[in-house]
Amino acid sequence: MTAVLDASSRWLPARLGEVEELLREATVGYGETIGADADATLDAGGKRLRPMLVLLCAGPEQSGGVVRAAAAIELVHMATLVHDDVLDDAPLRRGLPTVAATSGRNRAVATGDLLFSRAFALLAGAAEARAVSLLADASVALAQGELAQRRDAFDLGVSEERYLARCGLKTARLFECACLLGNDDEALREFGAGVGLAFQLLDDVLDISGPPERTGKARGTDLLDGTVTLPLIEAAKVDPGIREVDLPALDPAAAEALCDRIAATGALDRVRARALEMVAEAKRSLERTDFPPEQRHLLELVADGVVQRYS
Question: Within 10 Å of residue 186's Cβ, how many Cβ atoms?
């Protein structure tokens, strides 16, 4: 994302700075416990990719409501991460202890709930019914995707189609929402969905390939959680014996060995290639917009950045 900021004119860093201010203000006044946990989530950082998409799709001549929408979508994203860490009993996120690990499950749930509520409070302040509807629909999709992932846990019979549908709900829909919050051009729906799916595929590749010092978590964390991803599905086509692995019985060492077995099939390269195709198709959808050259170029850089982060 540094490349995007370097290539942009002054308006984008300035608007992202306004987003950061709103994020900091969003958790003020909620006490030393839940407020501190929310602040810790903010301090853990992140690429601010979704807010950047909102701002880029809106362009430089944007209103304050767009900045509020950009902050709101990041709050929803952070809320889902906190709740995911509760469900997964995850000790680390981005190499740092999770709220669930440091403050317990109950406080983590409350922290995620606070972040969700503050997101919609920002949009209510902007008096933007369309933005509320878009983000509410995306939040429902996130919940549906999480439920689908829970239903599919440890099921080695999960199909590629079901996996992609789940990723569409749990990841791509929020990217799509970010783009539409900035601009209601339907071509941006395709752009956001394509970039979001590629992001998830590459994230799943990284879970298998590691290394932990890059991902902030152990290799094979998805396998230990019982989450069947496309690299595993692809690997089983070459090595059918993978379908016989007892996923619930895996320990960290066995998960790492299974990662090596998946990588040996060439599945990671095939999934990377699929993600590259998705990004290329997403960039082609921008040709149907009437964006000026700079705006289109910056969105293309965002799409490229999703790939480069995992190269």
Answer: 12
- The string of DSSP codes covering 39-60 is HHHHHT----HHHHHHHHHH-S
Distance CA 262, CA 199 (A): 20
Provide the pLDDT for residue 29: 80
Q: How many whole angstroms separate alpha carbon 160 and alpha carbon 166?
A: 10
Calculate the dihedral angle through the C-alpha atoms of 295, 297, 298, 302, rounding to the nearest 10 degrees: 140
CA gap 283, 257 in Å, rounded: 37
Q: Mark the ranges of the chain whose per-residue pLDDT is less than 70.
A: 1, 125-127, 213-216, 309-311
CA distances in angstroms from 221 to 49, 51, 57, 206, 227, listed in the order given: 23, 27, 34, 10, 9
Phi-psi region of 226 (alpha: psi -120 to 50; beta: other; left: phi over 0): left
Q: Which two tokens stand for residue 139?
A: 């939040």
Q: 287: burial class by Cβ within 10 Å (0-12, 13-18, 19+)?
A: exposed
The CA distance from 116 to 275, in Å, is: 30
Whether 189 and 221 have beta carbons less than 8 Å apart is answered as no
Task: Determine the Cα–Cα distance for residues 281 and 104; give it in Å rounded to an integer.
Answer: 42
Helix residue ranges, H only, 239-266 = 252-264
Prediction pTM value:
0.92
Token duo for residue 25: 């203000």
Q: Hey, is 141 helix, strand or coil?
A: helix
Residue with tokens 């992202």: 16
C-beta of residue 98 within 8 angstroms of C-beta of residue 222: no
Give one word for 136, left, alpha or beta, with left for phi > 0 and alpha for psi -120 to 50: alpha
- The pLDDT of residue 203 is 93
Count Cβ atoms below 10 Å from residue 61 Cβ, excluding itself.
7
CA–CA distances in Å: residue 87 to residues 160, 230, 276, 311: 24, 21, 31, 29
Is the separation of the CB atoms in 231 and 208 below 8 Å? yes
